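ok trying this again, last paste got cut off
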Amino acid sequence: MQELILALMKGDVSKVKSWAAENPQYYGPLRNAYGRLRNLRRLSALDMLMLVLLYPIRLLLSSSYRLYVIFFWLLEKVDALNVFRYRGRALADPASEKQLQAVLSVLRRDGVAVWPGFFSASQCDEINRYLDELMVRNKEGFEKLPRDIEGFRDPVYPGFEHTREIVEAEFTVYGEDRMAFIYNRNRVRVYETPATLKDVFENDTVSEIAARYLGHTVGHKRALLEELRPSLMPDMWHMDNSGSSFKMMLLTTDCSVDNGPFRYKIGTHVGTQWKAKLRANWLMLKFGYMYSSVNLLDYRTLPSDRVFWGTGRKGDAIFFDPSGIHAGSRAVKGMRRTVVIPKTPRKIQNKLLGWLGVVAN
């Protein structure tokens, strides 16, 4: 443990990662820790203290599903007492306010909603200019790195981090002239927003929709730039994490069914599905992984024959509750480019679950 604390204090990502590999029971919280270290180079004293102190609580909660349910329920009750619960701030433009309310109504009912033409073509073009440049360095950077390396800082924009999923890197097949991924998605996480992109990544209307939906003020953590190209398989159906969260996906290119659109099982964010999802959240805590695939859920409790397909035009914004069951689909030609912006409410539940290593946002 002393070796771990020294590594955390020094911001030594490689030592934290190797320590986590040797002590798999710490995998969940340490994955969060070295993820933050890789981008911020250090953890706050409070983060380090909570990482160590909450480990016995993590062990206790992972030993009993019933105990975890009680813990989760108590956190819900504490957050429900929040006297500073967000009430909403009307937009200055009446037409935009009306559209916002319509989006919220659908979002609360279905778990997913679209605002067509939310962002302008010029805003999308600015993002695509970054992506044109970033995707070249993404490909070149990972070709030079060992297969077990999950990410690296962009050499031109230090606040940008290139990432890849290890499954995609390991399970590949060879086509006629290039290597094809099982699910061919390249990502760049943006932790320091460039001035030219602040009106998109830190958009006030997006924050307002998230705050009204979640009933709490929200914070901006990062933006995720994605490029999806043709591959063999789609993304698996999954839910993101426990706790409350919200995401906006901006299409920066036109997207048809051939380009691998986002999919969402309508209505799986509410109702009887919570029993199955809560158990999956407990398994995330117990075994130390961050996302739950649908095969880990009792599928019979997730009846939804209605699937939303996120096709649309450049500039359309898709708002969704990531606790619902969702996935990317397989691209068969062209590409899909998107920006995903998560918003997390300032709730005790989210903070504690994050320290325990469950909340992935």
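PB: full thing came through this time. The CA atoms of residues 127 and 304 lie 34 Å apart.
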